[in-house]
Specification:
Strand content: under 5%
Largest sheet: none
CATH topology of one domain: Helicase, Ruva Protein, domain 3
CATH superfamily of one domain: Cytochrome C biogenesis protein
Helix content: 55-70%
Radius of gyration: 30 Å
Number of helices: 6
CATH architecture of one domain: Orthogonal Bundle
Shape: elongated
Number of strands: 0
Distance between the termini: 60 Å
Order of helices and strands: HHHHHH
Length: 154
């Protein structure tokens, strides 16, 4: 099946947009050292007493204690999920800064992407219709009628 030049350009643009979305959501591999894991986990949790700071950024007493607790759990070999579960059970769901992928939160992340894709598809459809629309010209009868009406007005 042969594509027109315009279709090929649109396909390339769609492929580039999709590729950039995939690349931007890729996460680096798991941290290699315990210090990397502690830093990464500390950035994923909100300081319970600070406004808008992560545990990694805050020097509040509770944040320092949470970092110490994360360090201890990493050193004894607990997984990130076990550490997250322990902190959430101690401090509540609001401590976890990572976006959830299910339920309403998942919709909040996916709806803008879906709307954007449908918007581009609608624009492409409208542009295609405009391009393929017939150019209408007046017939000789129409021109004669307009001329007659102009003469009557004056």
């Amino acid at each position: 099946m042969m594509f027109s030049k315009r279709t090929a350009i649109w396909l390339c643009l769609c492929a580039a947009a999709l590729s950039s979305l995939v690349i931007s959501t890729q996460v680096d591999g798991p941290p290699r050292t315990n210090e990397d894991r502690v830093r990464s986990l500390s950035e994923d949790f909100a300081c319970p007493t600070c406004d808008g700071q992560s545990v990694a950024e805050s020097n509040a007493v509770v944040a320092v204690e949470i970092r110490r607790d994360i360090r201890r759990q990493v050193d004894i070999g607990q997984t990130d999920e076990e550490i997250t579960s322990a902190l959430v059970s101690s401090y509540g769901d609001s401590i976890d800064l990572r976006p959830r992928s299910g339920g309403v939160v998942g919709l909040i992340w996916i709806v803008p992407v879906v709307v954007m894709v449908f918007g581009f598809a609608a624009l492409a459809s409208v542009f295609r219709r405009w391009r393929s629309a017939e150019i209408k010209t007046a017939s000789q009868d129409d021109v004669a009628l307009v001329e007659e009406l102009r003469r009557r007005r004056t």
